[in-house]
Amino acid sequence: MSRFWSDIVRRLVPYVPGEQPALAKPVKLNTNENPYAPSPRVLDAIRAELGEHGESLRRYPDPLAKGLRAAVAAHHGIRADQVFVGNGSDEVLAHAFQALLKHEKPILFPDITYSFYPTYARLYDVEYRTVPLDEQFAIRVDDYLAANAPNGGVIFPNPNAPTGHALPLAEVERLVAGNPDSVVIVDEAYVDFGAQSAIALIDRYPNLLVVHTTSKSRSLAGMRVGFAFGHADLIDALNRVKDSFNSYPLDRLAQAAATAAYEDADWLASTSARVIASRERLTAALAAVGFNVVPSAANFVFATHPAHDAAAISAKLREQEIFVRHFNAPRVNQHLRISIGTDAECDTLVAALKGIVG
Ligand SMILES: *Cc1c(COP(=O)(O)O)cnc(C)c1O
Q1: Where are the domains of the chain?
Q2: For the chain, does the N or the C end have fewer beta carbons within 10 angstroms?
């Protein structure tokens, strides 16, 4: 705290990202990164963009990321004017809070969800109200309908984080249709691991914004590329904020890498299938040592042990250089969120857990 700080900085509660340990070979299952490399085409595209002497780097990148937006629009069967690109979906979400969720009435999001939402709400002074998930950690759509809960907007991840629970598309549609006067943002960071995308609905609902990232299923967390899909008026709002903040949020290498990743749908399908198979295998192994595991449609599982404290388990794993995520928050402080690694990493984890929980 300093006397030079603004009021807003004093009030901020920054998001705390998962640890990036400086170890040679940690078993890193704490930030939902992909265990597999990106498509080989990504590397080729980065090399081609650099050229022999890196001469392209002298020039600013395309501020509109036209090539990338065209590739992503083609992949999803939509128009490029329905696509917004940002520096990671976190930046896309930040712009959406400022551009589309700041109104008189409070916005709604689940009590257990991505912890960046309350952080952005405070940063942009957006009123919010959290809505409890049910006992199975599912979103109850009725709790979000404008008729029952007047609101200035709704945001939730599907599948939800950190629970991994997915809402069927028909339920997402009921929520969007039940809020014709406010924007509903569906954050689909994990959709490729087992949920149905709401992109199919954007032509019919002008209040729907769907957010995606290349960080999880496309193995590009290090490149920082995220998207929003929606009616051109919503995309226009995001572009107005972007062009009042940073005209060049995506560098040349990120644009080239993400374009190549979207052009290799086979790579996405095969690596996602491997992660899903490992998730089912890890879920069974955790159950065998006594954990209760929430059924997951994501690249992580959310698990609790009836006889052992979650924070203590996490600390003991850490001593063995195995990293999982523990949230010290109400309702979930006895759970661990475990990212799906390779089968070998999952086996190392399970062996360590056997030693800890007996
Ligand atoms: C990981 C994650 C993001 C952020 O992704 P980036 O594109 O890496 O910024 C957004 N929303 C949820 C729910 C996530 O888990």
Answers
A1: 16-38+266-357, 40-263
A2: N
